[in-house]
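Annex B.
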Amino acid sequence: MTTQIERKSPPVVAEIERLGKVARRKDLLSRGCTEWQLKQAEDAGAVRKVGRGYYALPGADPLDVRLAQHQARRTCFSKAAQIGLWVIEEPKITHVAAAHGRPVPGCVVHRVSGPQTLIDILRQCVHCGSEMEALAVLESAVVLKQCTIPQLRAAFSGRKDAKARAIIDMIDPQSMSIIETMARYYLRQEGYNVQCQYRVKGMGDVDMLIEGLLGLETDGVNFHDTQDGWVKDMVRNNMMLIEGLPCLRVTGSMVLHRPELMLDWVRQALATITAQGE
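Very-short-patch-repair endonuclease: predicted structure tokens.
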């Protein structure tokens, strides 16, 4: 027989789960939970109070529990990484949101009142990060369908949002990975014309077509370092040769740590293609 507690606690649990397993009471109430539901869920052991005005689910990240004890929660790149957006390198010092604005040991504090929206988190990433770091996060929000480009343009329409608007102009909704986004950024910074997900007859899409002459594939270990991935890469390489499209392959590690080598290869390859066409 279903008890009243079992009927009432799941909405609270679901809302805390959506917020990252630790949530503020204010945010839960704003999402339609009631004080009675919170009390019943706590009495049933489905949630526990971990700080003044904060509740957590069993198995919540100890860092989030510790932050709750300081009336703080992750934000900026630290929150972006937690919710699955593309973060080039998660900050070594956790960025947190706290309405009180007081120092939190071992953290960078953003003074934030009220619930945090996705736009709030993206705005903090634009403020704190480099252009490329912010591009990766904003682009992933679009690619993962967390928001749209028109929504971003509307949100960043203020006088102080020039940096964000420039980043939004760089977003390509067809990007397939953070490595592809970074490679495209470096190439365009060098002044190259770059088309993303360029369709080649008989083989599908190439990650990038540079100057209309050179293909570039960015290889991530998770996909390409498998038997099936290796076979697909072989077929694609053969088809590109047949279609007369030279193509470079670069690893994710190279894009992350040695982009200058990728750019040097591109310069040399384009010079060779141009010389052969003369």
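The chain has three domains: 1-56, 70-173, 192-277. The beta strands are 22-24, 48-51, 54-56, 73-74, 94-98, 107-111, 194-200, 204-210, 214-219, 247-251. Further annotation is deferred to the next reporting cycle.
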